[in-house]
Each structure stands twice: as structure tokens, then as C-alpha cells.
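Hello,

Our lab assistant flagged a job as stuck in the queue for most of the afternoon. It eventually completed. Since we weren't sure the result was trustworthy after the delay, we are filing this so someone can double-check. Below is the sequence as submitted and the structure that was eventually returned. Let us know if re-running is recommended.
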Amino acid sequence: LLVENNLIIAMDGEDILRRLGADVATAPSVAEAMEILAGQSFDLALLDVNLGDETSFGIADRLAAEGVPFAFATGYGEGIAQANSHSDAPVLQKPYTMDGVTDTLARLPLLKKQ
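-- returned structure --
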């Protein structure tokens, strides 16, 4: 799952994730991400912290409750992403790059298979 409200940045993120072999669902808002999560399960998520007038912290709460690894993405520095209850989550600095995404995904905890 990729949560990113900027269309151009989302397209870059999708492209990188697909080149890494992922099937990607993208949501531009908390509401759309929660709707997608209600109908699908994911192996991991990349969450833009600042989604305009909202943040992705509620999505992170849900993913954590479901045992889905996630990382935050931000262009504002790591401090904004780590100022929440998920301060241990990896943080990817935007703009997205292949190296940045690869390094961030490598820092995610091992997936929990049920």
C-alpha cells in the first residue's frame, strides 16, 4: 500500500515499487487508504506523513494492529514522522529514489505470516 497525496510523487513511488516487484495500491487520503484496507491485505505499506490537512498516523495505527510492516515518507525531515506513537518505524526522505526505497524497505521488520 502506498499512501501519497501528491499525484506526481505517487507515480514515482508506484514506479519504483513496481520495479522492485510489488503489486501496488495507492491512496491519496486517510479515508481512501482505510477503504482499501477494509477490502485487501498488504505485506507492507509506505505512508506519506503529511496528507494535506491530515496525517497518516491513523493508518499506521491500523497497520500496526494488523501486524503489517510500514515506513513513513516525508519531505520535512525525520522529526515530523517520528513525533508519534510509531517513532520506531523507518523513515524515507522524499523525493522517492530507488536506493532510498530499497534501503527503507530493508529496515522493515520481517513479515508476519498467518
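-- support follow-up --
The delay was a queue issue, not a problem with the job. The result is valid. The first strand starts at residue 2 and ends at 3. The radius of gyration is 13 Å.
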